[in-house]
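Tokens in:
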């Protein structure tokens, strides 16, 4: 009887152990983190395509919607990581505006990169502003006020309410208008001699049209005369000018020489 009692106790104990083990295993298997443990590990290593492939093998008729949602999240993280990496490349190349737009696409779901991207966005704005202002000041030193306006536009694109940039824009617009008005007056005075009368040479030139290869002065002395407006662009390769006349007529200059006539 005692042996039978001990045997029963042993069987009961073993049964309890087995039940506990089964319940434990079932609990682990049912845990979502266990199911996606390999997927999460691959995502952490940046192996997004492999993570998607693993997810696809987990799909059953019962969990299809859940696994597809997981796949969608993995793809979002893939795109986010790509954008963040491109942003860092642009940032390190001092292309702060381009980097800014890449960092702004990183969503909160990307817990690995989101906080860093948010910090980089602030840095991009600050550095783009400094870069733009420095370039604009260089243009102003060359009396290229139109160029200065172009220089600060990228910074205003990402920091449109910045008071310093807006004040500078207003200043450059005024200087550019004054510069155009001054240039126009100078051109007018160049057409006349000290007595305000055209010389015979000027009268002869005035009867002729402009031809490619002329200087600006020769064009002013021609039948085209003084333009209604002048658009000037300064680049590393030189200075380009567009002279605007009535009836949609234009003269184009490269470094002071007429290159194109649009009549």
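Residues out:
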């Amino acid at each position: 009887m005692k042996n039978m009692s001990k045997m029963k106790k042993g069987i009961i104990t073993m049964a309890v152990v087995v039940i506990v083990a089964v319940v434990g295993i079932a609990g682990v298997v049912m845990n979502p983190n266990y199911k996606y443990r390999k997927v999460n590990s691959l995502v952490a290593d940046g192996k997004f395509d492999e993570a998607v492939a693993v997810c696809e093998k987990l799909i059953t008729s019962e969990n299809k919607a859940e696994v597809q949602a997981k796949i969608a999240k993995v793809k979002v993280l893939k795109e986010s990581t790509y954008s963040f990496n491109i942003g860092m490349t642009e940032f390190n190349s001092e292309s702060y505006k381009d980097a800014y737009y890449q960092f702004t696409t990183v969503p909160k779901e990307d817990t690995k990169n989101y906080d860093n991207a948010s910090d980089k966005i602030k840095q991009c704005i600050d550095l783009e502003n400094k870069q733009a202002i420095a370039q604009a000041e260089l243009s102003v030193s060359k009396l290229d006020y139109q160029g200065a306006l172009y220089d600060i536009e990228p910074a205003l694109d990402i920091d449109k309410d910045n008071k310093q940039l807006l004040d500078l824009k207003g200043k450059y617009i005024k200087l550019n208008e004054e510069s155009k008005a001054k240039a126009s007056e100078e051109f007018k005075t160049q057409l006349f001699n000290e007595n305000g009368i055209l010389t015979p040479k000027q009268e002869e030139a005035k009867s002729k049209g402009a031809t490619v290869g002329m200087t600006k002065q020769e064009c002013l002395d021609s039948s085209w005369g003084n333009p209604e407006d002048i658009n000037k662009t300064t680049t590393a390769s030189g200075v380009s000018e567009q002279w605007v006349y009535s009836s949609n007529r234009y003269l184009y200059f490269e470094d002071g020489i007429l290159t194109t006539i649009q009549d």
